[in-house]
Amino acid sequence: RRYPDLVVHRVLKELIKGKGKVGPKKKAAWTAKFPEVAAHASERERAAEKAERDLTKYFQVKWAEGQVGKSFEGVVSGVTNFGLFVAIENGVEGLLPLSALEDDYYEFVAEGLELVGRSTGKRWRLGDAIKVRIERATPALRQIDLAIEEVEMSTSEKKTQRKKAEAERPQARKKSAKSARVLVGPPQEKQRNDRPPRLTAQKVYFGEWTGEGEAAEAAPEKKRRRRKK
């Protein structure tokens, strides 16, 4: 993997010796040799990376072999047409097959890299939290099989619930405003008979005077005076 760096160092050394200039023979040799060197270096680097990943996966599966039956918090790290890849807390990654998602029939949507439930519309995407249980570990196949232990609300479901709550708020406000209103009819004209009696100074200080009693007492006196005449 370090051979490309060694080739670059050799070229820089030749340029330093020639003070930035390279002879035509050396330049022709490099032009003929470097494409083959670059292809060989790239191929060996890919092989080394593959061996490193394979060894890392082997030790991960060996660790999971002793954790069968235990539950771990995880995050969806990959979505495929055959299941979900879940990375647990320590970085170990396992496969949650579609057969383990028993709450619905899920379809793979390649455009959004998600699994969508046909009946419920539930979605599984990258980054969704999930609690899984290690069901089986096979070091020879470098494979860890997982099962759902507990499902947390996915990010898409949280967004859907938030939108529903925001949509219901204005409707609730309108209902409360309607219930608080008091219907008032057109103003009715007051009749004159409904008006309160008018108070005068005589009624306030001497009571209400009708004049019937004094008129009755004054009538016989007038008659008596007429008889005397």
UniProtKB/TrEMBL annotation:
<dbReference type="InterPro" id="IPR003029">
    <property type="entry name" value="S1_domain"/>
</dbReference>
<dbReference type="GO" id="GO:0003676">
    <property type="term" value="F:nucleic acid binding"/>
</dbReference>
<protein>
    <submittedName>
        <fullName>S1 RNA-binding domain-containing protein</fullName>
    </submittedName>
</protein>
<feature type="compositionally biased region" description="Basic and acidic residues">
    <location>
        <begin position="155"/>
        <end position="171"/>
    </location>
</feature>
<dbReference type="InterPro" id="IPR012340">
    <property type="entry name" value="NA-bd_OB-fold"/>
</dbReference>
<dbReference type="GO" id="GO:0006402">
    <property type="term" value="P:mRNA catabolic process"/>
</dbReference>
<dbReference type="Pfam" id="PF00575">
    <property type="entry name" value="S1"/>
</dbReference>
<dbReference type="InterPro" id="IPR050180">
    <property type="entry name" value="RNR_Ribonuclease"/>
</dbReference>
<feature type="region of interest" description="Disordered">
    <location>
        <begin position="153"/>
        <end position="229"/>
    </location>
</feature>
<dbReference type="GO" id="GO:0005829">
    <property type="term" value="C:cytosol"/>
</dbReference>
<feature type="domain" description="S1 motif">
    <location>
        <begin position="69"/>
        <end position="149"/>
    </location>
</feature>
